[in-house]
Write a structure and sequence with these properties.
Layout lengths: L13 E6 L8 E6 L10 E6 L2 H16 L2 H4 L5 E6 L8 H8 L6 E2 L9 E2 L3 H19 L2 E11 L1 H12 L6 E5 L5 H4 L1 H10 L7 E8 L16 H11 L1 H13 L4 E8 L7 H13 L9
Parallel strand pairs: 3-4, 3-7, 7-8, 8-9, 9-10
Antiparallel strand pairs: 1-2, 2-4, 5-6
């Protein structure tokens, strides 16, 4: 008779830290992956990610599977910092709404009856935490190449990545905004874009990748055609316009000489299934051995 002792399946070389900010308040759960082995002379490249609970396992395994064969994959090892919440699930919808929403934000009805109101607008506080507290913490755990830091976000996280670029363009050198919610709050992000365009820092050299899934266009996924909510989904698509807005944003940003921006459309993917695809793209971009040059 087969016998076994069940043990937890851990994410390789990854530690978990519940980080209470200096000003107090609820902690963030930080998933920190530091590769084993010798630190590169210049320090490790590092990839920061929002929605850490949902992405950390995929990101670590995508890197480990490819970094062992750099001549074939163009991927090397790096540090991964995934910022999540002390919850059992993949997301904390209430807190991410606040953390990832650009200011000033608004207040919305509860997600469920009897729950708290939903607030947006905390992106500046979240970005300040990353810059002033989290980055020094990571640097105390691993030697970092300050010139090779990337930020990935999906959906609201993609909107946050755009906000971070527009308000602190030197914080990262690579930015990945997957299925960004550009439409949110009547395109409030445009106010920050316009300010950024009028004062692009001298000497900036950055890369931005925006993306959307095939079924974030006007097309419905095959399993959605004929479903009870088909019409509702089509109406929502006319509001979000994820692929259209992301493509146009990439074209507008690519017109800035010091910024290389591109748009990718991923075949067969919807708003949620695009997550692992774009996590891998973030790994490929952040940890590329041979990196593309400027214009």
């Amino acid at each position: 008779m087969f016998q076994s002792i069940a043990t937890p399946a851990l994410i390789a070389d990854t530690t978990v830290h519940d980080f209470v900010p200096a000003a107090g308040g609820e902690p963030w759960r930080i998933f920190l992956h530091v590769p084993p082995g010798e630190t590169p002379e210049a320090g490790w490249p590092v990839l920061y990610m929002t929605d850490g609970n949902a992405v950390i396992g995929t990101a670590v395994d995508a890197m480990r599977a490819q970094s062992g064969y750099p001549s074939g994959t163009n991927i090397e090892d790096g540090v991964i910092v995934a910022i999540g919440y002390p919850v059992a699930g993949a997301y904390d919808p209430l807190r991410r709404s606040w953390d990832l929403g650009p200011p000033p934000g608004k207040t919305y009805p509860p997600f469920h009856e009897g729950g708290p109101e939903v607030r947006t607008g905390g992106a500046e506080k979240f970005l300040t935490f990353i810059e002033d507290e989290l980055k020094p913490f990571v640097a105390s755990r691993a030697r970092i190449d300050a010139g090779r830091q990337a930020l990935y976000g999906h959906s609201f996280g993609g909107l946050f990545a755009l906000y971070a670029l527009f308000t602190r363009p030197r914080a990262f050198s690579t930015w990945i905004a997957a299925s960004p919610a550009i439409y949110w709050e009547d395109r409030a992000i445009d106010r920050f874009l316009e300010t950024f365009e009028t004062a692009v820092p001298d000497g900036l050299s950055a890369q931005m990748i925006l993306s959307a899934g095939e079924y974030e266009t006007e097309k419905l996924a095959p399993f959605q055609i004929g479903a009870a909510d088909e019409q509702k989904r089509l109406e929502q698509k006319r509001v979000t316009r994820t692929d259209e807005f992301a493509r146009a944003m990439a074209e507008r940003l690519d017109a800035i000489p010091s910024l290389r921006a591109s748009f990718e459309l991923h075949a067969g993917e919807n708003h949620m299934s695009i997550l692992p695809v774009t996590v891998n793209r973030a790994v490929q971009t952040a940890f590329a051995v041979a990196r593309g040059g400027g214009r």
